Amino acid sequence: MDKEKSLKRNYAYNLSYQLLAILVPLVTTPYVTRVLGPEKLGDYAYTSAMVSYFGIVAALGTVTYAQREVACYQKAREERSRTFYEILFLRLFMVGIVFAAYCVFLFLAGTYRVLYIIQLCTVLSWAFDISWFFQGMEDFKVTVIRNSTVKLISVILILTLVKSKDDLWIYAFILCFSALLGNMTMWPFIKKYLCRIRRKELHPLRHLKGSLELFVPVLSIQIYTVLDQTMLGAMINTTQVGYYAQTQKIINLESSLLFSLTSVLMPRMTVLLSENKVELANSYYRKVVSFGFMLNLPMTAGTILISKYLIPVFFGRGYRECIPLLRILSFIFVTQGIGQIAGTLLIAMKRQKQYTVAVTAGAVINLICNGLFITRFEAKGVAAASVFSEICIEIMMLHFIRPTFEKGALKEAFFNYLPPTLGMSLVLWAAECFLEVNLISLFILGVSGVGVYSLLLILRKDIFLKELLHKGGRGFR
Q1: How far apart are CA 464 and CA 38, in angstroms?
Q2: CA gap 129, 137 in Å, rounded
Q3: What is the pLDDT of residues 347-404, one digit of tens each?
Q4: Rounded distance, CA 409 to CA 407, Å?
Q5: Rounded CA gap, 34 and 47, in Å?
Q6: Separation of alpha carbons 375 and 299, rounded Å
Q7: DSSP tally for the chain: helices H, then strands E
Q8: CA triplet 381, 383, 388: central angle to 5 degrees?
């Protein structure tokens, strides 16, 4: 693109979608947890986890690889068109193989066959997914608007059509078909970025090596994110999967604020590092790390303290087992947040091998811990294994980026936001002594936590907060 892109604008687009992604579950989750219950939701979470293994093979590591490659050719129309068509043909070939394998799986599946048939929509959606191209071009407007529209429609359908536990198949169909529809609606907007390339000039297999290098870490990530639910369902039951999956929803909701920034960071870092602008890249790194700790430290402490209020109000009766799960998984805010930043930088620097080593080691650790903890601690064991493996991954990734990025940024940011986090925690702990478990109390605690933390930042004259407020976010520009 001839026009200089604004990281601030892309973050605003992505943040708006992530905020919508927060608001939607705030409406649908309390509804479906009460209507469907933990067992039915566990059935869906378990089958979705199984289907996602096919998705790993279908993507073959091309999502992150393709985003980075497109980012390298933002200003070269012919080369980015060639890259798009080659990667698209490679993905379609893999989706075709996976579709055939999934049909065989359907024939052999006994339990949950109806849910697996419905999730054919998910398999088909992978063939139409070109979000990686728009992310590489740093055009987040297209993906945000289309996905937001589809998401709002799906909310209306869920609230209208899902009325009892027997409607699990309707709930599954709405979610799966919305994914397919969302991917299909992006295609009309890609023409302006492409030019015609002769077929004989296309060589899709040249991207196979780069994709395979990122396939191993993608597989490893899947192991310690989805295999948790698969092992829990196989070794215990799908009700435990339901507890764990619903708790993960809360974690994912709160994590989306930082994720919306790291997802737009990678293409920008790729461009800067390819132009050898290391100083500017370090400037972004310092700001993103500060932003991460400014959000994640109070989110961790706050979620731990209000969990006994949040779970009953949000999920309703029958989900008390989610309270200790939420307290354990809250530590992921810090570990996963910093890990996402470090992993994004490794990929931008084309250090796939180091990225692969870190996530593969984390997956192995997670797998071993799951085997040791699940039978004794059930879902709580899975949560503890996830946190421990995330810590290991973060440590390794931070070690790998040290030669390029400043070493003191993490320590400085952590100790900068620790005191106001402790102050907020003290206020919440004291307030809990006087409040009963209900919606009003949850609201009071939430407002009090945010208010006290913000006030402490203002009193400390926090430089990063002052820059954000003064420049309206242009610090990320």
Answers
A1: 42
A2: 15
A3: 777 787 888 888 888 888 988 999 899 988 899 999 999 899 889 988 898 888 876 7
A4: 6
A5: 20
A6: 30
A7: 20, 0
A8: 95
